[in-house]
Amino acid sequence: MIDLAIFDEHKLVLEGLSGLLSGISDVRVVLSCDDRNILVQKLKSIQAHVLILNMHDISVRNLNLIVQLNISNPKLKILIVSIIDNEEIVLKTIKAGAKGFLGKDADRTSLMEAIYSLRNGHDYYSKSITHLLLNRYISSLKTDEMSQNADVSNLSARQIEILKLWGENYSNQEIADRFFISVRTVESHKNHIMQKLNLKSTVDMVKFAIKNNIIEI
Fold first, then answer.
1. Which of 79, 125, 130, 206 is 20 to 30 Å from 170 by CA-CA measure?
2. Nearest alpha carbon to residue 83 among 120, 142, 126
3. Contact between 166 and 205 (Cβ < 8 Å)
4. DSSP string for residues in 199-217
5. Which pLDDT tens digit goes with each residue over 169-198?
6. Of 3.40.50.2300, 3.40.50.10240, 1.20.1740.10, 3.40.30.80, which CATH number belongs to 2-129?
7. Which residue, among 185, 81, 158, 156, has the nearest Cα to 125 in the 3D structure?
8. Is the dihedral of CA 189, 190, 191, 195 positive or negative?
9. pLDDT tens for residues 73-98?
């Protein structure tokens, strides 16, 4: 069971997010909050695995909130949801300690993928954010070294196929439909890929695929 906390200063949006996640058998909303002070206090006694922070502005105050929550709840994985998704903002939230970022292109499917990825110990970024970070990576490709342990020969043929499709922006559901497997199995394959290659995020997966000519840019 994945225990979720949700924060949004707009009650209507907060109720919408809670409703979006209701009825999912292995997800439980243990805290729904619209006051940052109450959020900080409640998380001292409530053990949540993932916190969804819906931010309508990425101010210093909000960045400090991320830092504060990371210090007081080191095991808590913070997922940012925001329509403000320029490179500088995304990088600031990552530096503050957020483990995921969903931009304005995110839907319920990507929200669930993000929750499962963070719970499994991996970072997660929606497609628009992944492209944003990849553009930064590609511009400095020659100076950015991948882990020496990352070797494509460690992967099975199926894992390489899944990595290729993921790098070409197929969703977990689309990959599952293509191979007649479940979304959970796709997620499991992705986790195994990251473990075998010693990668920390889906962005790193795509970077690896580019460098090893699994996908073309």
1. 79
2. 126
3. yes
4. --BHHHHHHHHHHTTSS--
5. 688 888 999 999 998 898 888 888 888 888
6. 3.40.50.2300
7. 81
8. positive
9. 889 999 999 887 777 788 888 888 88
CATH architecture of 141-211: Orthogonal Bundle (1.10)
Shared fold status for 2-129 and 141-211: no
- Which tens digit of pLDDT belongs to each residue from 137-161? 555 544 445 444 457 788 888 988 8
Task: Give all strands (DSSP E) within the chain, no chain letters.
Answer: 2-7, 27-33, 50-54, 77-81, 100-102, 124-125
Is pTM, for the whole model, over 0.85?
Answer: no
| Torsion over CA: 121, 126, 127, 130 (sign) | negative
